[in-house]
């Protein structure tokens, strides 16, 4: 399952500065805070099991730049398809990942004016024998933390902002920039090897809890009109239809038409 809102345009600003031996972004603490794992529960959003039940998926805000880069590589792997052994495919993937990695750092560190606050939420698993059959996933989306090799298997961004570039703009709760409590989900994706196991729902659930901590009152997501699996996921998560992209705009941007879905956060609880 992949969201229609993907890989926001990169910015020409330089990458955020890093600090410390663990290579963290130099941003306010609440923007890269670790979330403690709760009891394993596919509906609770804290942990999930792999296919063989051997390991749990930990859900949290990103911690290191190495993890953030792995999340970006998962997005490129999910949103772009390449012909087998196509010329220049790996170079193109790397260029896309590098551009999005730099742009994501800029959004998280507050360098882009429209974005008041951004967090990358990931689902990760330990690198284990049960994942060895997914060789490409492990090689592309692996990172190391405290000496342990882990793999990013799901990811999304929570963006507190007035709008996302090239997307329909939500109407609630208004456009008072001095008191903006609207947020958007973007870059929602799950590794194909772990789809249909509740990970997408758990990621969205985790993002809703963080949105409540931020004081968000209205949460939005865009989804392609032909992405039935994504629409089912968001409906299950409580989102309802608000609007849709005009056909001419979708043709101009060269993509499927998108729906705008809205969630009333006043009905959610931590």
Automatic annotation (TrEMBL):
Native organism taxonomy: Eukaryota, Viridiplantae, Streptophyta, Embryophyta, Tracheophyta
- Any one GO MF annotation of this record: acyltransferase activity, transferring groups other than amino-acyl groups
**Which residue stretches belong to region Disordered?**
1-22
Q: Which domain of life is it from?
A: Eukaryota
Q: Which GO terms describe its cellular component?
A: chloroplast
Gene3D superfamilies, per the entry: 3.40.630.30
Q: Which InterPro entries match?
A: Acyl_CoA_acyltransferase, GNAT_dom
* Pfam families in alphabetical order: Acetyltransf_1
How is this protein named in the record?
N-acetyltransferase domain-containing protein
Question: What positions does the domain N-acetyltransferase occupy?
Answer: 74-266
């Amino acid at each position: 399952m992949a969201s229609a809102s993907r890989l926001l345009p990169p910015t020409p600003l330089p990458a955020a500065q890093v600090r410390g031996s663990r290579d963290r972004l130099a941003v306010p603490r609440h923007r890269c805070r670790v979330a403690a794992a709760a009891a394993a529960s596919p509906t609770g959003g804290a942990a999930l099991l792999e296919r063989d039940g051997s390991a749990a998926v930990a859900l949290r805000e990103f911690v290191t730049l190495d993890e953030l880069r792995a999340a970006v590589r998962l997005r490129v792997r999910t949103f772009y398809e390449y012909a087998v052994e196509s010329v220049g495919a790996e170079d193109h993937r790397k260029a896309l990942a590098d551009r999005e990695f730099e742009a994501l750092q800029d959004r998280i560190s507050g360098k882009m004016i429209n974005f008041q606050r951004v967090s990358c939420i990931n689902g990760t698993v330990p690198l284990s024998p049960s994942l060895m059959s997914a060789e490409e996933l492990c090689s592309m989306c692996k990172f190391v933390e405290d000496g342990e090799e882990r793999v990013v298997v799901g990811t999304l961004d929570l963006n507190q902002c007035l709008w996302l570039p090239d997307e329909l703009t939500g109407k609630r709760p208004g456009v008072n920039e001095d008191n903006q409590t609207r947020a958007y989900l973007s870059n929602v994706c799950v590794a194909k090897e772990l789809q249909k196991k509740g990970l997408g729902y758990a990621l969205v659930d985790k993002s809703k809890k963080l949105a409540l901590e931020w004081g968000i009152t209205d949460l939005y997501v865009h989804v392609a009109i032909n992405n039935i699996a994504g629409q089912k996921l968001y409906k299950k998560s409580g989102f309802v239809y608000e609007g849709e992209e005009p056909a001419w705009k979708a043709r101009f941007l060269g993509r499927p038409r998108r729906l705008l879905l809205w969630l009333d956060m006043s009905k959610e609880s931590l």
